[in-house]
Amino acid sequence: MSENESKYAYKKKSAWEIFTKDQIKKAFDFSEEYKTFLNDCKTEREAVQKIKEISKKGKKKITINREKEAAIMVPGKKPISEGLRIVISHIDSPRLDLKQIPLYEDSESNLGLFETHYYGGIKKFQWVVIPLALHGVVVKKDGGKVTFTLGEKESDPVFSVPDLLPHLSREVQGKKKIDDAIKGESLDIVVGSRPVKGDFKEKIRTAILDKLHKDYGIIEEDFISAELEVVPAFKAKDIGFDKSLIGAYGQDDKACAFTSLKAILDITNPEHTALSLFVDKEEIGSEGSATAQVTTFLRSVIKELDPKADVDQVMLKSKVISADVNAAVTPNYTEVFELKNASSLGNGIVMSKYTGHGGKYSANDASAEYVAEIRTMLNKEKIPWQTGELGKVDKGGGGTVAKYFSRLGMEVIDLGPAVLSMHSPYEVTSKVDIYSSYLAYVAFLKS
Ligand code: MN
Ligand code: MN
């Protein structure tokens, strides 16, 4: 019996102790596949593509919305009218997007650069002087698409945001607040420096446009109809002498996307019809046609499962896990956490009854009954878990897609692994937490 069930005291316990040796080995093996997924899916479009490939290989039914949202369904023993079991995760991550007219030449520095506009909650100083890759699509005026993934192969070039040397940064950066030291407008990436020969006004800019036309058939106006995302070029790696942790870009929320994908692939004939949903634009408030706020897609998926279904009734009876990451207690900054109610790496999947900020504003606050149900399920399956609240009261806060689904009358709770250095170019998770998340989603989806 786990200490979580102890009669007198509640104490968080390490997943490393709860798991058997065999399970820890499985967690390490599972992480290898997870790292590949992270490397292959740095953007929402790439994630949908990969999810489609994997689900078809696993012979599961998938529906896709606009290349940015996907649903995988497994019919259950009970009729749809008894509700669904849904795990929803998001597949977008904080990054730098290119502006619509990105290219310019800076004549003083002799550099060609792309203007960017950051996406999601980033700490700007973390995005300078690191190798960056360019991913996305350019739609040409004839509708033809050029897909970019430049900066991932060993032979590819990368891009980078320049920063000032310390010798000269005391006034313009050093004396400022950390948030003001690097401006959003200075997050431009270097894309070239070699001028064309001849009588041109902007020789570097001209050379870059020539190259883009030659290699990709792109003209400058094509950037206006593009979605080009600048993401860290590094690969997922193990961290630590013991290789217990994973460092990678985009683990918020690919950690949950991958584990809920693997979970739905591994279940057959569940009690209730199971659904893994993958949505876009969570990091900027879930606005848009392929997001958790817009339920047209979900409604159509329910109709697809059963054309005669009373969709509102189905939703009222459905139970949902909002699969998103939580903040891991961060060494040297423990003062922002209320440690009894904070999640740490290695203690298993994190259950958050509520999110939000201030007086629980904008929170989904799961019912005590539903929390009990989830807690009982996790304990019964001996899955390591912990609770977690995003920081001390009034220290900040955050939200997930949970509230958009609870609005539809569903029971919703947040459940996902803890992440260290969240929203940074190099987020860190624990292998045992990733595996706990997978096990938890399996247990839920088959119920
Ligand atoms: Mn997230
Ligand atoms: Mn996030």
Please tell me about this protein's structure:
The chain is built from 12 helices and 21 strands. The chain has 447 residues and is an alpha+beta fold. It folds into 2 domains: 15-93 and 249-446, 3-Layer(aba) Sandwich (Aminopeptidase), CATH 3.40.630; 95-232, Aminopeptidase i, Domain 2. It is globular, with a radius of gyration of 23 Å. The protein starts with 14 loop residues before the first helix and ends with a helix. It binds manganese (II) ion (2 copies). Residues 90, 252-253, 282, 324-325 line the site of one manganese (II) ion. One manganese (II) ion (MN) is lined by residues 252, 283, 423.
Roughly what fraction of the amino acids lie in strands? Answer: 15-25%
Please name the fourth-level CATH homologous superfamily of the largest domain: Zn peptidases
> What is the name of the CATH topology of the largest domain?
Aminopeptidase
CATH architecture of the largest domain: 3-Layer(aba) Sandwich
Q: Describe the sheet with the most strands.
A: 8 strands, mixed
- Which cofactors or ions or other ligands sit in this model? manganese (II) ion
Percent of residues in helices comes to 25-40%
Gyration radius over CA? 23 Å
Low-confidence stretches: none
Write down the overall geometry: globular
The overall pLDDT average reads: 95
**Main CATH class of the largest domain:** Alpha Beta
